[in-house]
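Let's do one together. I've listed all components of the complex below, 1001 residues spread over two lines.
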Amino acid sequence: MLKDINLEVEEGEFISVMGPSGSGKSTLLNVIGMLDNFDEGEYHFLNESVHTLKERDRAKMYKEYIGFVFQSYHLLDDLTVQENLEMPLLYKKYKSFERKAMVADMLDRFNIVGKKDLFPVQLSGGQQQLVGVARALISNPKLLLADEPTGNLNSKHSGEIMELFKQLNKEGVTIIQVTHSENNAAYGSRIIDLLDGRRV
Amino acid sequence: MFKNYLKIAWRNLIKNKAYSIINIGGLALGMAVSLTIGLWIQDELSHNDYFMSKDRIAQVYQSQTLNGQTDTGPAIPIPLEKAIREGYGDNFKHLIMSSWTNNLYLKYGETNLSRPGNHMQREAPEFLELQILNGEKDGLREINSIMLSESTAEALFGNEDPIGKILKVSNQYDLMVTSVYKDIPFNNTFHDTEYIIPWDQYLASNEWAMRAATEEQWDNNSFQMFVKLAENTTMQGVTAKIKNVKKDLNEETVEFNPQLFLFPMADWHLKGSFDNGKQVGGRIKYVWLFGIIGAFVLLLACINFMNLSTARSEKRSKEVGIRKTLGSLKGQLIYQFLSESFLVVVFAFIAAIGIVLLSLNGFNELARKEIEFPWDSINFWIMSILFIIFTSLLAGSYPALYLSSFKPVQVLKGTFKAGRYSGLPRKVLVVMQFTVSVAFIIGTVIVMQQINFAKNRPVGYNKEGLIQIPTFSQDFEGKYDLMRSEFLASNAIVEMSSSSSPTTRIWSNRSGFSWEGKPEGFQEEFAWTVVSPEYAKSLNLKIIEGRDFSREFASDSLAVLINETAKKYLGIQDPVGKFLKDDYDTDPNSGLKIIGVVEDMIAQSPYEPVKQGLYAFDRFNYSSYYNLRLNPEKSASENISIIERVFKEHFPDIPFEYEFVDEQYGEKFASEERIGTLSGIFTALAILISCLGLFGLTSFVAEQRTKEIGVRKVLGASVFNVWNMLSKDFLKLVVISSFIAIPIAYYVMNGWLQEYPYRVILKWWIFALAIIGAMLVTVLTVSFQAFKAAKANPVKSLRSE
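Okay, and this is what the predicted structure of the assembly comes out as:
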């Protein structure tokens, strides 16, 4: 999918990846997020050579440093908002009271305390994506990867999420987002255009 | 973490109620079956566990060879006791001579009972590890004493203290109750020993037994000997020592090569069959059979679980993807899905215990057991926990591995589709299920057929409307003619006879005859029944050649009827009028004159050929049974109440007991019928479980293909086309299963049938029937879902996409 891409991302950047369907945006994001493998080339992340790491170490690494936001939110339908937020913490070594505190903190920060016992189907799209972002941020990742985070949202919600991203970026989170929208791309500090797997 | 998993699992169960019911219900049924079978097996294996020193107890068995055929059994001659006691006594802690377990009449005051019990030597209470509740431990010291089981004592004396009371036994002699012992458990060889009378009393009150002792009859194998080994001895070691004792001490029996051996208690119940001198198992085969059935039924239920879980995998794939992107490792996902299956299995186990508790009474009745649910057995609960874990792993491992291996990028992008062959393992599992089900169907049908085949075999006499009354007391001596005329006069019967064995048994075998044309060295043996002259008439036994006994010929007291098999056995073309000379009789002119040949009648196993038999005129009143042909013009109950009245007039001190001969004959099928019924029930459950799984599976397939069905319908497919499309896939699997199942079932069942000399011939249509049956069940199961899917409005299913 991707060909000869040479990309360097500094800590604290807010990058928007753009390009038509099939241009390899999502693949690039998945490779950066260590969800996809690549056949050739090198990937250095925080002084580690990801391409030489074992599956296990790689998982450990992205568990610690990377958060994901999806176009269709991907919340677990069987869990409440609160439980959805808690889930990533379960895969890390936090004690029960620490998890509770972190979840409460996040609910507070995103203004969704009142929604904590609702199930995803009971929320609007914008609210669901808010939970999705909160979930991605709960374990303090250094890098936030967002695959068309506003693709399913109306322009009002869309704007809110983008403002949120901008705010987060200011607080020091590196963000890479894939988007179709020029508007959203403008929130970023740098735009990368892809076409047929190459940078343009 | 674990809590989180259980929470998701629980919500999943609640959300998909139908799925959960099918899954848990099917698994619970399977577990209930294997649990019940497990309890049954445990009961079989723990037979005689009541004995602390089970592994040191044995019975002395004897093998003898006649005409190259070796027979093995527990019957031994009486002089053997002295020989072993004197020559090898220090090998044994106890050596007990015993009678067979027979019924005697016990009378105290107005209470008169017929109960089974034994005559045994003095050390019996210690040997049997009896728990004495009342009275003395050494209760058999005096010849006129009797020890009673708790329940027998209660039946006789109620609340009175039984110790020191005098019982009248068989209306002949008085015995004093010396002690009361706790009932020997149901699950024990000696369960029927409800009283013990001293051995010396046996000899004193049975003339034939006393004669066997005083005359040292080595050829009268009519007694039992139980032993408990001394320390520092082994069964094999002692067997090697006593093997040839009888042969060495008695020349006359050398020709039969009598071999003695210790038959250990551990083998009594499950491995008590001998074929031509070799131990060939026994009931243990049913333990294996049911064990295999239990394992298979559980496997079927587990397969359901696997199939339904993987079929739902597309619904769970999103969750797997999200969890993986949020940092879940594959191992953690496996752990999650296993804990889900654990939850389901625990629910199923609880439901299974409920099912077992509800059905245990019925099962006990069917299986003739007294199994109780082992609430207080730690072993049972440990086994149960292991069983739950094992089942969770068995049922959950495949879905766990399968689901956890999804690639997160694919499932989240929505490009994940189960590949063309992803259904293959599921198909293999369905094939396995139906292979087992079809094999079960075939097996059950063949068992039933074999039973019916043997039942329809002509018995040789008319067993309906015939009753037998035991006459085990000296009171009956010399009363036969009187009773016959009394019963006839009462108009309750049309004919009556007496015989030395019940109609449905052979109690005695005899050898020691010569006849014209007997081959040199031929070691003959005949079933030997002593009968009154009306025997054939009362049984409606057909005379084929010659004539019946007649009271008009005085010479008939030395006459004998032979059966058809005996005619062939003797090798005489025209046997009527020929003589059978008794080798023990010194008078050269004596002998039994053959006056007629009767039709073969089945007195032993209905699965085996009839044995050569002699029916001799009863000269000495050897009667053990009266055989009464009821008056067909009256109802049976009417006849019996008249008979009871007449009986009571003449034998007021003897309890009136009777048995219907056809019911006694039916007992011969009890063991096979029990196996047949049980395997029938298990088969039905196995099929039900398979169908539950199939039902669930079809509903998922139909759901998966909703869009395809919609498109097809828009393009003009009829309901029938769609139904056909969905059913065909499953029918194919059933046909494949049948072709795997048939050879296996044929092989196994053919082996089972070989045990029966008289057996049904396997016909091809049994197998065809099984296939058609399985296909029919499949079509019915699949159709419900298939029709539902086929009739759905295509517009709806397409719009929702």
